[in-house]
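User: Predict the complex.
Assistant: Input components as received:
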Amino acid sequence: MLSHIVCALSLAVFYILQTTIFSRTTLVAGTADIILVFLAAWSLHEKIKNSWLWAGIAGFLISMVSAMPYFAPLVGYLGVIGISKLLQRRVWRIPIIAMFIVTLLGSVFQNLLYMITLIIQGTPISWGESLDAVIVPSILLNLIFALPMFAVVTGLVDRIFPLEENE
Amino acid sequence: MKFLNAKNIRTIILILTIGGLLFLAVSGYLTPVFNLTLNPLISLQRWLSVRYISARDLLTTPSDVVQLREQNALLEAQVTQLQTQLIVMEERLSEAQVCFALLDFGRTNPQYEYIATAVIGREISPFLQYIIIDKGTEDGVRYGMPVVTQQGLVGRIDAVIARAARVKLITDSDSVVNIRLQSAGIEAQLYGSLTGDVSLDMIPLEARIESGDVVLTSGLGGNYPPNIFIGQVLSTQKRENELFQTASVQPIVDFESINAALVVSNFEAVDISPLEPEE
């Protein structure tokens, strides 16, 4: 129960930070997606069992707020959780490396999804410009925030689970 | 010979000795001797004095230290309070400056009614150029209303809820604005881009446009009111095998730092899509 509350509050805080600060902080035309980075860090902890649920909720709510084609953020965040679970179970056991890989692959997946969705919708954007101006800078920013976010989420998880085990 | 008795001789020797010593002292010959004897004394005196002062301070100053600490804490609290007040005042001054500028814009364009809004967020996806404002349907904001600042055109309302609205900026890659080049007297279209740059297209090849030409909304299409300032032409690109020439535009509005905007509430966008031929 506590993990649900903490996750909900964290998502609310990171959503506000995202729209007010991180979306205004650009590198070329790319911005960090701090919600994606949070969900990646959250889902990588073995004790966390609710990451699919909260990725779905976050994706749904952001789909409502964003001007992106409907449910593109939802699919993007669920994809990040999918990548995270795949790495967590089968491939990698070193959390911090896994965090970087999930952030990298998740950012690539999400940005490509956004770009393809926009192109299908008829928005005149080019692959080259998207890659140079948006995708690569966004991935770089996400990777920069991956390490501090992982430390923050690990701190949160370490505080939550002793309390939940005592309940 | 009575004068040279033993007593007088001792007195004379004593006087001569004292005189000699005085002479030696005055002439500086006795300085090493003084140093040798006085230095240990001075050291002892200093040691004792320091201990005495420390002991005296220990016994007499605790009440002063406590008092000083209290005063210091009080002053620090006052400084913090004043700094907070200063920050609040600076914020209010900044807001007031923006409000005055917006008011000024309203005065110079009295034909429109405005709803003043604050920008509270930006679109999450970096592919899109949208902002979120703090006024919605409860305040009279409706879909399609143009949004301006004191400088010029910002965009139009794309989605609206009760207490907030999303504004599609003219820099968005999906945005098209019909414009008029003031000096050349020709009409063209302004396009946004992924990077937030704006450019003109559909300019006839024979049209003569120059750097610095003013770009205004034309009002065609019914999406924006006419004669709202957008920016100035930076450079033109003309290719022989193309039907139209293009131009880069420097927008007058700094889209990265918009803090407040005005929604033009008495302008209703006209939806002409049913009149457009189907592709």
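Chain A touches chain B through 33 residues (CB under 8 Å).
Let me know if you want any component modeled separately.
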